[in-house]
Specification:
Elements lengths: L4 E2 L5 E2 L8 H23 L21 H26 L7 H14 L5 E2 L2 E2 L15 H24 L4 H19 L5 E2 L3 H4 L6 H19 L1 H11 L1 H6 L4 H27 L1 E2 L7 H11 L11 H20 L4 H29 L1
Antiparallel strand pairs: 1-2, 3-4, 5-6
Helix pairs in contact: 1-12, 2-7, 2-8, 2-10, 2-11, 2-12, 3-4, 3-5, 3-10, 4-5, 4-10, 7-8, 8-10, 11-12, 12-13
Length: 360
């Protein structure tokens, strides 16, 4: 039997040139990082990072340290929501630096519509509005918050699509504006005392549930709908996409609008979880979200990547953060390692592109 099998047109199939999905490499990297922390844990602190070595937990997940797993997942779920939007922006060939500031602004304004009238039987000590905005259903601050995110995304997308301003500059401007607006809203004062219904949004494992649900939704949209096909097409070759009949400008506005709504969703979950909103919320979130996408195999050149990869990138972030805390190392080491990982991920992406070009 011949070693090579000929396909259509007489072309020879070479299994050595078969391209594995980039998510496989990200998953392997996740396993390697877990193994490294397990070894360091055994050597440094005499404990396991993820596994229950003291028999404290029962049930089907009894072999794991369930408490640490919950903390690990919660740590990345809110930024992971932002990363879902960043994934779509980067696949389309853009970049968005504004989500962190949009989180701060949205949290401040949404929480202002979620305040209670009384705290421990006394009038709310720091109301933003009058009694008309107290004790109203959680739907109102949610709608207000999502509208702010939608507006920010529409502004970003319109500037980028119709004025040809580079995405870096347009979203940088929104980043500065939104952060300033967040500080101006209450002159830097935090907004607290939310209603019980609003506080429920970020309670327990709800942030994780919301993150997973959104990841599933947008994975489906990117892989199985016209929206997803157009997003990949524009990121791969914008001119070719335009010539094929795709309304590139309108689609870009849509992508940035979705990213803005997802940033606002993260803000609502975060403020609900913390039971307060501050103008400094979300600082550096946009960079962590971009890092998650790049680590997850999304190409900064556009046209390639997936939500699954981004979720795996978020998991790598979670393992690193929890691992360094577990080893009792200072937080600045985390930032240094993040930088190294981001640079390494970009270098690997460049190498992948070069290999792909060579195969072509």
């Amino acid at each position: 039997m011949a070693d090579n099998v000929h396909g259509t047109g007489g072309q020879t199939y070479d299994h050595k040139k078969r391209a594995w999905p980039p998510e496989i490499g990200v998953f392997i990297a996740l396993i390697v990082i877990i193994v490294i922390f397990e070894i360091l844990g055994a050597l440094v602190v005499g404990q396991s990072l993820l596994f229950d070595t003291k028999g404290r937990f029962d049930g089907p997940l009894g072999i794991f340290n369930v408490a640490r797993l919950k903390i690990m997942i919660l740590q990345v779920s809110i930024i992971g929501i932002i990363a879902i939007g960043s994934t779509q922006v980067i696949i389309s060939g853009g970049i968005d630096l504004s989500p962190g500031s949009v989180v701060g602004l949205t949290a401040m304004i949404a929480m202002s519509f979620a305040q209670v009238a009384e705290v421990n039987g006394l009038p709310n000590p720091k109301p933003v509005f009058g009694s008309w905005a107290h004790d109203i259903p959680a739907l109102a601050p949610i709608v207000v918050g999502l509208t702010i995110g939608l507006f920010a995304g529409l502004v970003n997308g319109t500037l980028i699509a119709y004025t040809r301003i580079p995405p870096f500059i347009a979203t940088l401007g929104m980043m500065v504006f939104a952060r300033g607006a967040a500080k101006w809203w209450t002159k830097g004062e935090p907004v607290s005392f939310p209603t019980e219904s609003y506080a429920t949004i970020g309670s327990g494992m709800m942030p994780v549930v919301i993150f997973v649900a959104l990841a599933i939704l947008f994975h489906f949209l990117l892989r199985n709908t016209v929206y997803g096909k157009h997003t990949y097409a524009i990121g791969s070759n914008e001119d070719a996409a335009r010539m094929s009949g795709i309304k590139v400008q309108r689609h870009k506005v849509m992508v940035y609008a979705i990213a803005g709504v997802l940033a606002a969703t993260a803000a609502i979950v975060l403020s609900s979880k913390n039971l307060t909103a501050q103008s400094g919320m979300g600082i550096m979130y946009e960079l962590d979200a971009i890092a998650m996408t790049v680590i997850g195999g999304v190409s900064l050149a556009g046209g390639r990547g997936s939500i699954i990869g981004t979720v795996l990138g978020a998991m790598i972030f979670g393992v690193i953060i929890s691992g360094f805390t577990f080893l009792r190392l200072d937080a600045f080491y985390q930032e240094m390692v993040k930088g190294i990982i981001i640079i390494s991920a970009v270098v690997l992406d460049q190498l992948r592109q070069q290999r792909a070009a060579a195969r072509a």
